[in-house]
């Protein structure tokens, strides 16, 4: 495994501590990270995303979707199995899981839908007005400075 030195990032930037910590955490994770259940992440619009997770065998009551600050946590706990069932072959995994996704600033969950064995979680990035680009008028000497307008 390669080791990356992120100290140049710390020397040349201010306020990116969280991103550098996240990169360090991702790079140091073992390559045997569990891949169950399989999932897709797609960009559905300029500022909209969808996470689709294969949750065959789980009902809505078994699933939990929670957003805590900059983290999305999807968990599933199967209700008690019936002891009377005898499987000859059990190929559908219904073991408990917990998936965590790191979310960028200003990304929030707008909804979740469970259909046809898939859990779809919709997300949107909403940048506050104060952070959007704005045009600054340049005043000439001797003129009064006018407050900037939002672009």
CATH class of the largest domain: Mainly Beta
Number of helices: 2
Unreliable parts: none
N-to-C SSE string, H for helix and E for strand: HHEEEEEEEEE
Corresponding CATH architecture of the largest domain? Sandwich
Question: Structurally, how many domains make up the residues?
Answer: 2
* Approximate helicity band: 10-25%
Oligomer: single chain
Major β-sheet, in short?
4 strands, antiparallel
Q: What does the overall shape look like?
A: elongated
Order of strands in the sheet with most strands: 1-2-7-6
CATH fold-level label of the largest domain: Immunoglobulin-like
Measured by DSSP, the beta-strand proportion falls in: 35-45%
Mean pLDDT: 82
Number of strands: 9
Give the terminus-to-terminus CA distance: 46 Å
Kindly name the structural category.
mainly beta
Radius of gyration: 23 Å
Keywords:
151 residues; Immunoglobulin-like; 3-stranded antiparallel β-sheet; 12% helix; 2 helices; mainly beta
Q: What does this molecule look like?
A:
- With 151 residues, the protein is mainly beta.
- It folds into 2 domains: 1-33; 37-125, Immunoglobulin-like (Sandwich), CATH 2.60.40.
- It is built from 2 helices and 9 strands.
- The protein has helices spanning 7-12, 17-28, and strands at residues 39-45, 48-54, 63-68, 71-76, 97-102, 107-115, 118-125, 134-135, 149-150.
- The strands form 3 sheets. Strands 1-2-7-6 form a 4-stranded antiparallel sheet, with no helix packed on it.
- The longest helix has 12 residues, at 17-28.
- The radius of gyration is 23 Å and the shape is elongated.
- 7% of the residues are buried.
- The mean pLDDT is 82.
């Amino acid at each position: 495994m390669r080791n990356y030195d992120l100290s140049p990032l710390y020397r040349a930037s201010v306020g990116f501590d969280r991103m550098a910590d996240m990169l360090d955490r991702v790079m140091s994770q073992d390559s045997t990270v569990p891949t169950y259940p399989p999932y897709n992440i797609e960009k559905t619009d300029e500022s909209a995303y969808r996470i689709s997770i294969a949750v065959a065998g789980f009902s809505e009551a078994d699933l939990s979707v929670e957003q805590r600050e900059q983290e999305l946590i999807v968990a599933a706990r199967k209700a008690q199995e019936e002891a009377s069932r005898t499987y000859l072959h059990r190929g559908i995994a219904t073991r408990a899981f917990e998936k965590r996704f790191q979310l960028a600033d200003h990304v929030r969950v707008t909804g979740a839908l469970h259909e046809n064995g898939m859990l779809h979680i919709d997300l949107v990035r909403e940048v506050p007005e104060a952070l959007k680009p704005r045009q600054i008028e340049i005043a000439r000497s001797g003129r009064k400075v006018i407050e900037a307008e939002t672009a």
